[in-house]
Amino acid sequence: MKKLNTTLIYVLSSISLVCCICLGLGILLAIPSFLIANKKLKEAEQQPEEYEIEDIKAMKNAKTFSLIALSINGLYFLYSIYGLATLDWDTFMLEFEEKMQQYQ
Predict the structure, then answer these.
(1) Of 57, 70, 71, 85, which has the fewest CB atoms closer than 10 Å, so is most exposed?
(2) Domain assignment present for 1
(3) What is the pTM of this model?
(4) Does residue 95 lie in a domain region?
(5) In the 8-state DSSP scheme, what is residue 4?
(6) Interhelix angle for 53-86 vs 27-46, to 10°?
(7) For the chain, what is the domain count?
(8) Is residue 2 in a domain?
(9) Do the beta carbons of residue 30 and residue 70 sit within 8 Å?
(10) Which residues, other chains included, contact 3 with Cβ-Cβ below 8 Å and sequence gap of 6+?
């Protein structure tokens, strides 16, 4: 029996959720996480006799978690793009400088 290892998918998805606060750039980790989970599930569905049912269920849960991480990162990425597109650059730089002076 082959084993489906979900650790990589959970690690990538979890790190992507943490990185989503950086303009949604966690999407760079969420996409591979989802693609890996999807690929492994397709392999397991083509040859179900080689995998245990518990492993397939665990991989489905990991795929769901990666899809949620991908959705959150995607929405935050679009929000960040919208914010940067609609905000005047000079205003953004002034606010940035004010925040930097507050922390010094």
Answers:
(1) 85
(2) no
(3) 0.81
(4) yes
(5) -
(6) 150
(7) 1
(8) no
(9) yes
(10) 51, 52, 55
Bridge partner residues of 51 (DSSP): 2
Helix H or strand E encompassing 23: none
Query: What's the per-residue H, E or C state across 35-82?
Result: HHHHHHHHHHHHCHHHECHHHHHHHHHHHHHHHHHHHHHHHHHHHHHH
- Token pair for residue 29? 């980790």
Contact 41, 59 (CB under 8 A): yes
Question: Two tokens at 96?
Answer: 């940035």
Name the one residue in this structure whose structure tokens are 């650059």.
Answer: 89
Residue 25's φ and ψ, nearest 5 degrees, are -75, -5
Q: Which amino acid is at 39?
A: K
* Of 63, 61, 74, nearest in space to 26 by CA: 74
Close Cβ partners of 104 (under 8 Å, ≥ 6 residues apart): none
Domain that holds residue 19: 7-103
pLDDT at 92 over 80: no
